[in-house]
Amino acid sequence: MTTQENEKYAIILGALLHDIGKFERRATESTSIKHEEYSLEFFRDYIKSNTLFLNQPELNDKIEKYIDHHEVYHLISSADWISSSERISSDSNSERYPLIPVMQHIDIGKKTNSKMYYYEAHAIETKINFPRESQIDENSKIGSNKKQFFEELTEKVEKLYNDFKKDTKNIRVNSIKSYCDTFYSILEKYTCRISSASYMSIPDISLFDHSRSVAAIALAKHFSDNKDKPFMLIHGDISGIQNFIYKISSGDSSASKNTAKRLRGRSFYINLLTETIVSYIIDSLNLFISNVLYSGGGNFIILAQNTKEANSKIIEIEKEVNDYLFKKFKGDLGVVISKEVFDNEIFKNYSNSIEHIMKLNNEQKSKKFFSILDNIFDVNIPEIKDTLDVCPICQSDEEKNYIKTLDGLCRNCYEHFVIGRDLLKSTKLVKIKSKDLSQDVILSNNIICFERLGYYWALCDDIKIRSLIDSLYKERVDEISIISINNTNILPETNFNSRFNISYSFKFIGNYAPTDKDNDILEFEKLASLDAEKYPLMGILRMDVDNLGTIFQKGFKDDKTMSRISTLSREFNLFFLGYINELAKEHKIYIAYSGGDDVFVVGSWINIIEFAVQLRKDFSKFTCFNPNFTISGGIAFCKDKFPIGKAAELAGIAERE
Predict the structure, then answer these.
(1) What CA–CA distance (Å, rounded) separates 198 from 195?
(2) Which residue, among 334, 222, 339, 357, has the nearest Cα to 277 in the 3D structure?
(3) What is the DSSP track for 482-498?
(4) What is the sign, positive or negative, of the torsion defined by CA atoms of 521, 524, 525, 527?
(5) If we measure between CA atoms, which residue out of 367, 376, 371 comes closest to residue 327?
(6) What is the pTM of this model?
(7) What is the pLDDT of residue 346?
(8) Quick check: 294 and 566 in contact, CB under 8 A?
């Protein structure tokens, strides 16, 4: 590992661990030892002594000095100071107060709820522990039953901390990069419900969100060569998503029988495309996952360093990605990437900065594919043939794309069908970074290819994943990420092939669908009859959060900082990507798409009504019954053979009305 790489990962670990001692102080009720000392102790006992690749004195020394905010290593101190400036002052004189949901303070002009709420200390999972009402006032003072409240709080924090230490100690990986990626997910699992600070401040920012903010700021500052404006915001927006997802009109009955699988496959393909572009950018700029401030629904925001090289790379990346997408989808999908540089004030006026970069992005949408015009018009007109093999789904007639595997589908549509078929039964999503994988490995494992960008994805269960890893043994693989789907228990019981640098993480995905006795996804004909055998009818529901743009831009008033806005985005993902699976399972609902604040689901008419009512109730509970949060939906009823794209359009009209 080079000196530069050592420095980078020392910064990342130092930033992620600099406040971890606060976790122990709250678990043990200790106030005699500074949290920095506990942080150093945690690193030495649970990371350094347990990780062979960290057996490097120089690297360990750097990590410890970053954790300890050493004067010579002031980078973390500076990033911590910038991030900590977000805190709202109060007269609280205790560190033990629980985390307060950011949602309860949102105000866009409606009367806010006077009641106060807090989170119990618990690990993140799809089953949400909703905020609990408490006697905490706006200055974090506890009313009645103060002693009992703190005793119960400390007991739960202690259990959570012990589980956190156990998982940290059980991380077994081959490289410091894989370690940082894995530890980041462990940190997210256990510290999203622990406040970063409550002494003299309102505790509405979690330890995780503060730590990842410090890591992102420190890394961007470290690589920047501009002292006045060291930061660059990158905003990406994939266009054409709605038309792409619903472009599944069937030309014959053989193709129509798999409409449900293709719909799901196309929706998830957008998710993979977004993650691929994000990975391509952060790897190209030598950044870390903490620098991804938001990613979902075809949009992403990245905090990067302001350098001439980084600015140039972003331009080249947009050109490369659009050229790839145009050749693959002939203009159906494209990406617009905007960038702008900022000084330290970006973190105090974060929503204004986001609004500015999104405005730039919207202006550039009219120039989509402008950077590759030469490539678009530099084409050879193919020879006209008497007969053409036309894909019955997307109408593609390109012979090189043709694959006679399923009902004459083109390669893209077949790939989307496979995704939709495999997503429900898969427990793992595997990301493979490679310059080139052989066709034998790709076909035998149903691998989803973004080969030109250097990334491949595979869906598999706990059994098939080992055969997948084994099949890669002779391939040129840089690294592998094993992502647990809707399961935060990410560490394997036994290690995989030690030849590879493998990291572990989790991802919430709205992927539930009712199945038949053979565990196959129900097609729409059978779905329409669930709990409505005598009156079978499809219900198509589309919902989204009202006034979301206003909430992000104005809801925090003068406290619209990076951590709060990123926290709100992450909480929405937890609800609409994780918890929604629990609701869908209860009401036998097929999730076609869910992410960010958007829901598109299908079910029988009776189940879809009950689902919509329950989701609205739970969303209100999730947002602390704050009247500034509302969610609206529209339902279209139709026969099971009705074109899904048209049904979705009708549901969208009903939602807007």
Answers:
(1) 7
(2) 334
(3) EEEET----S-SS---T
(4) positive
(5) 376
(6) 0.90
(7) 80
(8) yes
